[in-house]
Amino acid sequence: MTLQVADLRTVLDTPRGVVRAVDGIDFELRKGECFALVGESGSGKSMTALSLMRLLPEAGRIASGRVSLGDVDLLGLPEAAMRAVRGRRVAMIFQEPATALNPVLTCGKQIVEVIQRHMNSSFEDAKEKSLQLLRAVGIDDAERRFDEYPFQLSGGLKQRVMIAGALAVDPEVLIADEPTTALDVTIQAQILDLLVKLQAERGMALLLITHDLGVVAKVAQRVAVMYAGEIVEVAEREAFFRAPQHPYSQKLFAALPGAGQRGELAVIRGQVPPLTQPFNHCRFADRCDFVFDRCRVEAPQLLEPARGHFARCFLREEGLAPPRQTLSAITKSASEESRDSILLEVKDVKVHFPIRRGVFRRTVGYVKAVDGVSLELRAGRTLAIVGESGSGKTTLGKGVLQLIEPTAGTVIFQEQTISGKSRAELRPLRGAMQIVFQDPYASLNPRLRVSEILLEGMRSLRIGANDAERIAQLGKLLTEVGLPAETLDRYPHEFSGGQRQRIAIARALAVNPKLIVCDEPTSALDVSVQAQILNLLRSLQERFGIAYLFITHNIAVVDYLAHEVAVMLKGRIVERGAVDAVLRNPQHDYTRQLLAAVPRVD
Amino acid sequence: MPFKPVLLWTDLLLWLLVAGTAIYVWYCYRRPHLAAPWGRVFQSRTAIASTVVLAAFVGMTLADSLHFRPRIGSGSEGAAQYSNEVLSVLDVAFAYLRERRERTYSAPLATRLYAKDQIESSTGAPTRDYPKLTYGGAHLQDESAHGRDIALRAGLGASLAVAAAFLLSLLRRRLSRWRPNVPWSAGLWTFAVLLLLTVPLLVLSTGYHVFGTDKVGQDVFYQSLKSIRTALVIATLSTVTMLPFGVLFGIVAGYFRGWIDDVIQYLYTTLNSIPGVLLIAAAVLMMQVYIDTHPQLFPTAADRADVRLLLLCIILGVTSWTGLTRLLRGETLKLSQLEYIQAAHAFGVSSARILGRHILPNVAHIVIITLVMDFSGLVLAEAVLSYVGVGVDPATISFGTMINAARLEMGREPIVWWSLAAAFAFMLVLVLAANLLADAVRDGFDPRVRVGSVPV
């Protein structure tokens, strides 16, 4: 037994009161095992990791509990002794490799620093050791990378350097906080394989913090699910994936989009309760489908319906829940072939950005973000563009809408050529083609009220005679996207990520579009919220016949929502076709690679 | 009419600013979503306290901005004749300070001059001693009662202040009922402290020179009060001049990029590489020549001094927009890549609307911070320019001229410290209050500050 956490409570002092971010959790991390802590944002999983490392933000403090590493009480150590533990016995890697490395030091120097700090060795020895480490984490030309700065490395390489740094002095415990969330799916697969390999070789304990059940299925041996600051379920991986015991875990699985899901995705209604209150009832009661009277008056304890399988739910007093139903892929029937007219036709579109150098800013070359793409989209259908970061899929989306002017090629929308038109000429068509962005926090102007945000497009495109009429329309629209009417008078920051994305969708819908370019609209959202947004997009399509150009890196979402799919690589489309054909029977090597890399729950 | 009103240019502009502010307040008051951020601003204690202090300064400025020429008699054809001297309401209120001139330096609250001179003793024999002041402490029969008299007057002033503060505190409950969210007590406490400082000073000033006198025997307290207007005029009018240049050029350059950006960058880089003082000196000297060659346009000395002050403001404004432009350009470059701007493009929203509704409100905090930084900077710039001889008209009383006059005496022994100390204290309070208020305004207007959420 390496790391034991008992009744850990961490609170944050905020202007709204004391937030119980971690509210009494117990778990143990055994030597040589990979233990996954799963939860949605705000569940307290990252706070748990920071509490273990005693690296809490200024407002945070550990209220009570015990964290022991072997026989050392980590919470009782003075800060100087804790510094010797950090990195030496417990190491941590973070989500964003781009910001976790110091940009002004070479990668090698940063690893050498860790070794010298803990081992008291000479620079030569430390350098030799760090070269070994860089090779161990799968960096080919370690000598060259040793002298390179972080900006010279790709995201995947940076994360490898981070891991090398974390492993520099053979820690007993490695805490990985969303180590692959910022990475592309093929790189994610490599990093996960690397973590598993290193953990097995070195026999260290790995605490993996993630929101992605696919990653858990691939890597973890035991799983704990966190909800609202508590652990609601702990189990071995097989048992957990076969039959999750807590209603929240069950819902998480049901909310995952995938080939087997063709109807509505399950959603978890309501929101995570505010953690400023003390709980003397079940935290999930308000959102649970199986709620009964007792849930509202008594807080459940962790029960053990099967050996080694714990769940915090009264229902488990009656024994185990039945296994999860795994749905086999439903093939979309041929009758779904659309006979609708072609709404959007893209012919050999190129978007090249010039690279300018020197005093006179001569063009010395081009970044070929989109390099000859052709596609077509019929009315009321969804075409998904899949690709990794840097493949040019977002640029393509903006190029289609003429938000970026394509360098070459033609875009035909509603039988009119729109490429090469001026802003004024495009304005009459703007209402018919809209866009929803990835980040619901950056896509709404924080200084405007929601009503102003929604009215802007209507005013600009002269929809409705006056503001009173427009406001009346907005009332209907808000119900359509599932927001209360009083939303109009509030500012965007008062809403959660999912609600903001609804506002962004409402903004696009307000001008009655025929085509919406959805640029990763769910990638910043939690699984349960993603399910709500996907359901919404789908029902809007059914009712209004809107066509989506759906840009994403998430294959499962494609499978759920799209009719056709195009796979992009380095600015070109390498494979295109109906969803079932491409995903079930990929022809191109890259598509196969991409599909193989996706971590799957089943 | 016993007087003839005179509207100086800076008066006109100041009153226009006041009117503009009043209209803005009324406009906000009627619209809850505009009033809400101001409501938040005034939930902060520092905002209330600094508003009280600033209000006192602004009140002084406005009292000093009502100018007139008093009537001195009737002319040959019965037409009223008016004095060539332009006075303000403040001048009249403090006439006793303005008119009581000593011969030269005297220390604060002194009864005698600061330098020895030949005087006739009571016996008639000439001796070298500190001469008695003409006005300061002249009411004292016996100079040994000096200390007691000061204590008495200060005590009287303090008790008056306490009584006034007590009366005001009765208002508190009524105010709280009117606006329960505003921390009125902070404002009332500030006001009480302000009273406690000023009322004894005023009571003492009837018999003494509370801050001493300067080289030509003028009361330093009076100079300090007059300087407030000069400082506020320079700070506000320069800012008003600079704002359109800075904001417009900055966001236009950042938003449109391309050749517009090149031109604006070229302009401000060039302007920035010319020493500012040189530009200002050239401009001030040119306009001085203009004023001197067109005496018919400026009937009184006050007119001449005022035009010079106004032009100084404009020149300071025109030469100091580059910093703001540079900051705003950078921020706009960043903002214009944000998704809500792109969403606006997708609606075909015009560039002017995007600049006005999306970019401007989101760079407002930078504008406010820069303005407050510049506010203090401009007050200080005036002092520097007056030193070079290209600042305000020598007849205009300002903190700059006070400091400059004091500068010459810093080396002498015993040191003449009171001019400098008075100017320093007044400027400190003014700039500090403005800074604190601007902080509160920025916090109140920034929606992200209000979220107060910590990532969990």
Please outline what is shown here.
The complex is a heterodimer of chains A (602) and B (456). With 602 residues, chain A is an alpha/beta fold.
Q: Indicate the mean pLDDT of chain A.
A: 88
Strand tally of chain B, please? 6
Derived from helix and strand composition plus strand pairing, the structural class of chain A reads alpha/beta
Q: What is the radius of gyration of chain B computed over CA atoms, rounded to a whole number of angstroms?
A: 26 Å
The biggest chain-chain interface is: A-B, 50 and 28 residues
Query: Largest sheet of chain A, if any?
Result: 8 strands, mixed
Distance between the termini of chain A: 30 Å
Principal-axis shape of chain A equals globular
What is the count of β-strands of chain A? 22
Terminus-to-terminus distance of chain B: 73 Å
Class from secondary-structure proportions of chain B: mainly alpha
Number of helices of chain B: 18
Overview of this protein structure:
The complex is a heterodimer of chains A (602) and B (456). With 602 residues, chain A is of the alpha/beta class. In chain A, 33% of the residues lie in helices and 25% in strands. In chain A, the strands form 4 sheets. Chain A has an 8-stranded mixed sheet with strand order 6-7-8-3-9-10-12-11, with helices on both faces. In chain A, strands 18-19-20-15-21-22 form a 6-stranded mixed sheet, sandwiched between helices. A 4-stranded antiparallel sheet of chain A has the order 2-1-4-5. In chain B, α1 (9-30) packs across α2, α2 (32-41) packs across α17 (418-445) and α16 (399-409) packs antiparallel against α17 (418-445). In chain B, the strands form 2 sheets. In chain B, strands 1, 2, 3 and 4 form a 4-stranded antiparallel sheet that branches. Chain B has a two-stranded antiparallel sheet with strand order 5-6. The N and C termini of chain B lie far apart (73 Å). Chain B is built from 18 helices and 6 strands. Chains A and B meet through α13, β18 and α14 of A and α14, α15 and α18 of B.
